[in-house]
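TICKET #2291
ISSUE: user wants both folds in one file
ATTACHMENT 1:
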Amino acid sequence: MVVWVGDDDPPELDAERILTVPPGAAGLRLAAARNAGAREAAGAGAELLIFLDADCVPGADLVRRYRSAHDEHRDAVLCGPVTYLPAGAGLGADELRAATAPHPARPVPAPGEVQRAGEEEYPLFWSLSFALGAETFAAVGGFDDAYEGYGGEDTDFAFALRSAGVPLLWVGGADAYHQHHPTTSPPWQHLDDILRNGEIFARRWGRWPMDGWIEAFAAAGAIAWTGGTWQRVPS
């Protein structure tokens, strides 16, 4: 199942089904795209939904590890480790296995082990690679379609999971690999998206997400706390 989020027609793809969710007025509709893919998969009879972002490659054991964890923890959301690949990295199974070096900001259980997240770890949820039962996804309500453009929708989803009492599990060995592409930190090209989506999040949850980037933008003098919210500083 592939969800194409561009405003053009998708190319020939090796997929059973291809859905198109074009951008909205404010940018890519990643939340709406994930919801559309989930609805289509569930409608086709899928009981386990595995989400993988377009710039991620699944490891050879990802599906098997997610299936095994789901069999044991059917009401949980499952998160496998993600390795950020260097430029020019090969994508063959052996090359990926040799390059495995999961991002250190998240727990990494040994392959075959499952570790339950504490309440304070839900903000570490990543939509790059995760899985959960179709019934659980529907019960939580999926992602909030109000988010358009970059940032915020995955943390919002994680907070909704926590609020609903859905367990978050770190799944060892369900490795995914993020392909290299140029980026900046903080992501200046997404500043307006982060401010808009951050305000949506703050209205719902009483705090701002992406606080590290917000702090960096503020330290650079690009934004300021004005009128009870973060706003651009006029240049």
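ATTACHMENT 2:
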Amino acid sequence: MFMVLPLVPLPVSVTEPTGMLSLTAATRIIVENDADAAASVLADVIAERTGLRPAVAGPGHDAIRPGDIVVRRTARQGEQYTLHVGDTARLEGADAGLFYAAQTLRQLLTDDREGWALPHVDIEDSPRFSYRGVMLDVARTFFDVDTVKAFIDRASSLKFNRLHLHLSDDQGWRLQIDSRPLLTERGSTAAVGDRPGGFYTKDDFREIVRYAASRHMVVVPEIDLPGHTHAIGLAYPELVEAPVMNDGLLAQAKELGEALPAAGEPYRGTGVGHSSVKIHGDATWDFLRDVLTELAELTPGPFLHVGGDECLGTAQADFDVFIERVTALTTELGKTPIAWHEAGSAQVAEGTIGQYWGSTTPAGEHADHARRFAERGGSVIMSPSNTAYLDMKYDAEFPLGLDWAALIDLQTAYEWEPTAIVDALPAQAILGVESPLWAETIETLDDIDQLIFPRVAAIAEVAWSPAATREWTSFRERVGGLGAVWDAAGWAGHRPSEIAWSTR
């Protein structure tokens, strides 16, 4: 009888011969074909999980012997990898594939009370979707560089490859822009409630990009436009319209005791839809060209996210003009624009990617908006708020999170299919999946862990594993085996009682 291997996301193919490979002080990591980076990652994850740090042997090593772990970089490109464990362990793939193979091996490490071991296994693996993202909102709450790196560690361990940073919102502007210094001098000082503000220097941002790349994640920076722009007005009031109240904002402010947004004053509430840049002003477009040019120069990845959501105080015709123009500007700067699905109302630039954040049962024109990105030669990232939003509460009593989209327990986060949401959207037009973490209710890394674990593992499997192999009962058992893996890494999180969590 085979053990249940705690593999999340589930690989494409797993075969389990009988037997175990013991890890001892004599275990070596053998490096072949310049796989040094992957070998270093593997040594770190083995040491973290077991306390053993295998010696790393490079060119000129002794003959491979039983118990060794061989890391071989292959010419085949992409994120696919193979992992074989028998008398030796062998990991093969290109750079990203080897990194993911190391994460899989981390999950396989087993404490059998006689020592650490790996079960014999043969794995062939590759991702379903090329875009597998998580988003961190650093605008409502500012998180420092070390916290962002910790978030990257958690996400990359589950084979996510995109980090979407929500860098601006009504509450704060979070990135140094040399041509517009008042954005950080005045626009970065606040956050939700009484939390401190903050911003990333350009060197900070470069370090985040570098660290993400070392974990095979591409940073997708977002400047939210034309709404969610109250903080811009603190720095450059001539560029923004006066706040426009809406019924939802007024009701929420009354219920939560939040102050309403006021021109020229930091906004520390959580209401939305009240702000807009001046869409037809020449000064606005000079500003946007300056900002997006610097952001493009800072960003080696192919994407710039330009927002486009919740512009409740903006006339539809004005919104459409703005989206058409800002996506064209982004394309001109050599980047692929991404925009929230509302932007599909406009003639977005050819190839613009939409990010769908509506329900798994689309309301109103949400599905139409999403389809239009594909019609314009683009694609769609699926982020349904009632299954993929990591900031929603697990249940009504959970102390962190919101509930406007849904209460999302682990099974709800797992049991949805990206291709089944928007009718008549071709499956090939779905670029991938992203799971956002908005920050209205969180302040610390521990808060982040409480909301993302274990649901981020469910989203990881939706994004990586073949649809035909996904099954809740299997996932429930496998994810429980990751309890000890996450504990060893120092990742706390929520542990739903319906899951049998491992402790060894």
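RESOLUTION: both attachments delivered.
EXTRA DETAIL ON ATTACHMENT 2: Residues 70 and 270 are 51 Å apart (CA to CA).
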